[in-house]
Amino acid sequence: MKRLLLWEPEFLKDCTDLDRALHVLSEYVCRAGLGKEASRIENDLGSRCRAGDVMLSHGLVNPHAQSSNVLVSTMIYVKFAKPLRANAVYASTVESGFSRMLLTMLSTSPTQEEVREVCGWYRSMADDEILALLANGTQQEIRRLLLEEGE
Questions:
Q1: What are the GO MF terms of this UniProt record (predicted)?
Q2: Which terminal residue of the chain, N or C, has fewer Cβ atoms less than 10 Å from its own Cβ?
Q3: How far apart are CA 109 and CA 101, in angstroms?
Q4: Closest Cα partner for 1 from 78, 71, 79?
Q5: What is the pLDDT of residues 82-126, one digit of tens each?
Q6: Domain 2-108, CATH
C-alpha cells in the first residue's frame, strides 16, 4: 500500500470545502498513476462520505472508498493550510470545519498485505494517543506514524 504525506500542499491551497478537496485529490491520484478516471474516484469517495460518518476526531476526516478506478491502494494524509468546511450534503457526517484528512482508497482486488495494513491502521486509531497525533501532530510526528503504523 502506498502511503503519502501532503503537508499544506500548494495545489490544495484554494480548496475551501470537502467537495473541492475530493475533486482535486482525485485528480492528483490519477496524475500520480495511482488511479484512473478521477471523476469516478471522486464520486466513489463522495458517495461514501454521504453514506456514513467520516469524522475520526475534531478537525480530522477520513474519506475512504474501494473502487475499480483505484490502481494502487493508497493512504494519503493531508494537512490543509487553512480549515475547510463541509458542504451541506455532508452536514450529518462531517463537522463544520476540518484541517486534516486521512484519505484511504483500496482497489477492488486488494492484496492480503494491503487488507492487513488497512486493518492495522484502523485498529491503531482506536488508541487515543494515535488519534490525537493524527488530529494534531507535527509534520515529523505524522511522517513517523505513517512509516510505523499498520505494519
A1: transferase activity
A2: C
A3: 24
A4: 71
A5: 999 876 555 555 556 789 999 999 999 999 999 999 999 989 999
A6: 3.40.930.10
